[in-house]
Each structure stands twice: as structure tokens, then as C-alpha cells.
Amino acid sequence: MHNCLGIGEKFKDYYYRNRLMQLNLDMQISTSQPFLESHQPFLSQVAGFFIVEERVFRTADGLLSESQVETTWETALAKVTSTLEDQFSRMRTASHFLIIKDYVTLLGAAVKKYGYPITQLIEVLEKSRDKYHQLLLLECRKQIDDILSNDSYDQMVLKKEYEYNMNVTAFCLEPDDAIPNFPYVAPFSSSVPDVCRIVRSFVEDSVRYLSYGGLMNIYDVVKTFLDRLLIEVLNDSLLNMIYARSLAMSQMMQLAGNISVLEQACGMFLLYSAQQCGIPKRVAERSHSALTARAVLKASQNAVYNALINLANFKVDEFMILLEDVNWIAEEAPDNSNDYINEVLIYLETLVSTAQEILPLEALYKVISGIMSHISDSLMTTLLNEGVKRFTVNAVLGLDIDLKMLEAFADEKFDSTGLSISGKETTFRDCLVEIRQLVNLLLSSQPENFMNPVIRQRNYGALDHKKLSIICDKYKDAADGLFTSLSNRNTKQSARKRSMDVLKRRLKDFS
Hints:
Keywords: Cytoplasm, Exocytosis, Transport. The chain is an all-alpha fold.
């Protein structure tokens, strides 16, 4: 009609200017409601506008030029991207981020079908990727902290098959696929499957955000953020739990057991990420060495092992106080062990029986080895300190009885726990080597042999000559009793005393 009237060009200009005014009106952001609520009509109007314009361009016989359509789209796209960048920078909730991202992706998919370039939209989502994951990590940290804080650290008791499937099978927390008899006592507490759910949800949300079409392979990106979750969040939360909260020994043991289970579950997290990204399982398994998460949980494992050792040593020290009651200048050789070692062994027996049910073998080995080393150090420290001003051979004989009981316990537990066939080069008995070598030297018929380099290396390699010099200065071959002079007539004893005197002199020269 306008062409027939001879004013076709005027109408083209009129249409173009009015449509620009309509576009500017459609792109006004509502200030009366949050962007989360207004983003859908905002983006829908943009999509509708350009779907109409593409139709007009194709069918209206030159009413719009290609350059006009492109210019209008570029103008609108600049407005949309600047609005999104501004709104994304203000967001503090990952789920809101995800809702808007989904609608932006929908806008891109809709207009792309009509030939409009959407590179700038994809770039906005890529630029906001780290911000979104940072918010997601913060939310996961709060959830994991709450889970760890509220856990009772009692083993889970699962009474039904669906409970087992939901808490064990779903996360591959047991290597055996067979359904157990119920009730089933899990080797972990409730925080383990709860943490696994958070990790799995994190992977799903990460994949969902990254599936906007800008990346050819999102698997590597998902793995990177999964590592951050396990390293910066889970590992850190576990360390805070270990250091900041006072847990009882049984609770700390269960936490150690939990960490071992989570460390094993890292493989499942990787495979689940691959599944969500559409990566074949065999490809994910080949790249397993690239995942560092299992390694970083070693920091939490080492921390909880040290915490267990410290708790146990603190308890052992309560019994080692009984060393103050030992008669260090006894005139007769003892027939029985000292009271302190009996109390220590009762405690250790209870500790090991409990630990065997909860701790993995490696943790059990480290904890018991740490306790044994502490006992050895405590005995050495007692002889070095001012509290023991002198001691006799009879006191050493009593110490020898104590050590034999402790060594028998160490050997029995090393065998019964299965550590003897695990390839460990250092046994529990080896942790007592310093105090054992000291006792052997003090009871030796020729203690001066310590100064022979070959004999010292073979029999007394764990002894420090400075410590030995202090202890030997306190050592008396016999008690200062009424019959001391008579006992010194014994040839063997006199020879040993002369040898000890030689050792004392040579140690002073050696130092």
C-alpha cells in the first residue's frame, strides 16, 4: 500500500524507528522486582522480537535490510550481555545463577535457529563460570561443615535393604556388590554418605552450568572444580574438624575411618563426573592418575592419625606417672613387673580391640607404632630427668621385665592384626628399640663394648652417646646397702662394674 502511494521508503524508515523504540521498551529492566523474577519476561521479549524481525526480513519484500537486522541484533545483544554481566556480578546464590543461566541458554538456542550469532552470550556464561563455581563451593563448604559438626561419629546401623542401597551401594562404598544380612553395621558414620551426596550434587550442578555449548569437552573443567571441592572444601573442613573440635578417642577413630572411606570414594566421584559428561568409563579410568583428590585427603588422614596418637599418648602418660613409684635403688631383683606397665597394657589392649573394628590397617599401624615410640621415649626421658638421680642394676632388671611384657604384646598384636603379612618393614617391637638397647647395654657383662664401632652399630645403633653418658653417670651396679661391699666381691659383678667405669670415662672423652 505504501509503495502504491509512493511513500514506501518513508514507511521503511517509520517501521525501523518504531521497532527500535519497541525494542528499547522491551529491554527496560524492572526495578521493582529482583532480576531473578524479571529475567524470563526480559529475555523472552528479546527472543520474540528478533524471531518476528527475522520473519519480516524474509517475507516483507525489502522492508528491512540485512544490515538493519544485524545492527539491531548487535545493539540488543550488547544490552543483554551488559545486563547479564552486571546481574551476575551481584549474585550471591549459586542456584539463582543456574536458573538464569538456563534461560540465557534457552534464549541462545532459540535465536540461533534463526541465524543470529550468540558468541557474546556464550562468552558471558564463560566469564561467569568461576564466579558460579565459587558460590557453589561456598555453599558446599557450609553444608559439609554442618554435616561434620552434627555427626555423632557412631557407625551407621542399616536395617533395611533400601537404606543400604541409598547409603552404601549408591556411592560404591563397599567393594562387594552382594547384599549383606541386616541389620548391617557400616564401617563409617552418617557423615560419609551425606558428604558423598553433596559431592555428587556438586558434579551435577557443575555439569548443568557448563552445558551451554561453549566448550567442546567439559570433562576436564568438571574435574578441575571437583578437585577444588575435595581439596579446598572437604579436606579443609576435615582438618578444621580434627583441630578445632574436641573429639573423644572413639569419635576420632571413627573420623579416621571415615576419611579412609572418602579417600576410596574419590574414584567413584571421578567416574560419576565422566558419566555426567558423557565420557566412556574406560577413558575416565585411564585418566585416573590425573585426579589429585585422593592424594590431598592424605593431609586429613595424617592429621587424624597424629590426633589419635596424641590422644592415646595423653592417656598413656596418665599411667606412666606411676613411674614415680618405681624403686630405682632397689636392693633386690624384682620378681614381677612394675604397676605402670600393667596399667598401660590394659589400656592398649582395649584400644587395639576397638581400633581394629574401625580403623583401616594402615591407620592401626601408624597409631600403635606412635604409641610404642612414645612409651620408649617416656622411659628414656624418665632416666634422663632429675627425678631419677641414680638407679641400680635391680631397677634395670625390673625395667627389663616391663619391656619383655610390652614386646610380647607388640609381637602378638602385630601378628593378630594381619600386619605381619602386609609387608611392613618396621614392627611394633622395633619402636621400642632405643630403650631395649639401653637395657641390654646396662645388663651387659661388658658395657664398654659400646665404644667399639662395629658392636655399637650392630647392637646399640639407636643409642645417642650424649644421652647414654647422662644415664650411665646415674647407674650403680649395686644398691648402697649394708651388704654392698660383700656383693662387690663377686668377680662377675666387679668385672662388669669396671667395664661400666671404663665406658663412663670414654663417653666423657667421646663427647
